[in-house]
Amino acid sequence: MLFLLPAYLSENTSITHFSPVIKEYIMQTDYFFVENEKTARKVVKFFAPEKKQADLKLFLLDKYTENADIKEAQELMLKGQDFGLLSEAGLPCIADPGNLIVKWCHEKNIRVLPVSGPSSIILALISSGFNGQEFTFHGYLPIDKGEKKKQMMNLEALVQKTGYSQIFMETPYRNNQLIEDLCKFLSPNTKLCIAANINDPEHEFIKTKSIKDWQKQKPELHKIPAVFVLGK
């Protein structure tokens, strides 16, 4: 089987927020697909501190990975070895490259077992007050300034035309610049939700305001994980 295992959004989140079955599955196998080894080891330690780190067999699966790169792991799975898929944060395969191995498992008739956990994208949406029936997640906005401005204005137009909520992210060290650009280029009456440090018991920040109100007081979010939602 392939266990799709959630990770915490904040290291300060209480273990009581998560299903005990996550620990059970981590203890059941030593083999994991991971996007980053250091983060994966911290996640394993969080859920199963008694798990021996030296026993872990970690196979890198990031946005550059192709099936040929994980052939050894796939051969082990075909022989019956259970694997876990660990996300960097939240749920695997959402804003996460894990779908490559999930797709392969379906092709090889290997059972895929999803485990419930937090998704920063969904938590931001349900906290925004915007349309949760119809929405689109766009991932990261373009790095090029001209393309980024064009994308922002396109998303704003989509909200006005369709009523669909528009969700996107930014690399944390560029959050402040993104907020400056949103305040500069979008209409004053456009509504924006900023959800940062989600699930952190002390530093969680989730607010929905109009652009004109964000212009008056912009949050300091340098290097802080955040999700942005435009909506009505």
From TrEMBL:
<dbReference type="GO" id="GO:0032259">
    <property type="term" value="P:methylation"/>
</dbReference>
<dbReference type="InterPro" id="IPR035996">
    <property type="entry name" value="4pyrrol_Methylase_sf"/>
</dbReference>
<dbReference type="GO" id="GO:0006364">
    <property type="term" value="P:rRNA processing"/>
</dbReference>
<keyword id="KW-0963">Cytoplasm</keyword>
<dbReference type="GO" id="GO:0008168">
    <property type="term" value="F:methyltransferase activity"/>
</dbReference>
<dbReference type="InterPro" id="IPR014777">
    <property type="entry name" value="4pyrrole_Mease_sub1"/>
</dbReference>
<protein>
    <submittedName>
        <fullName>SAM-dependent methyltransferase</fullName>
    </submittedName>
</protein>
<dbReference type="InterPro" id="IPR008189">
    <property type="entry name" value="rRNA_ssu_MeTfrase_I"/>
</dbReference>
<keyword id="KW-0489">Methyltransferase</keyword>
<keyword id="KW-0698">rRNA processing</keyword>
<dbReference type="InterPro" id="IPR000878">
    <property type="entry name" value="4pyrrol_Mease"/>
</dbReference>
<dbReference type="InterPro" id="IPR014776">
    <property type="entry name" value="4pyrrole_Mease_sub2"/>
</dbReference>
<keyword id="KW-0949">S-adenosyl-L-methionine</keyword>
<dbReference type="Pfam" id="PF00590">
    <property type="entry name" value="TP_methylase"/>
</dbReference>
<keyword id="KW-0808">Transferase</keyword>
<feature type="domain" description="Tetrapyrrole methylase">
    <location>
        <begin position="24"/>
        <end position="197"/>
    </location>
</feature>
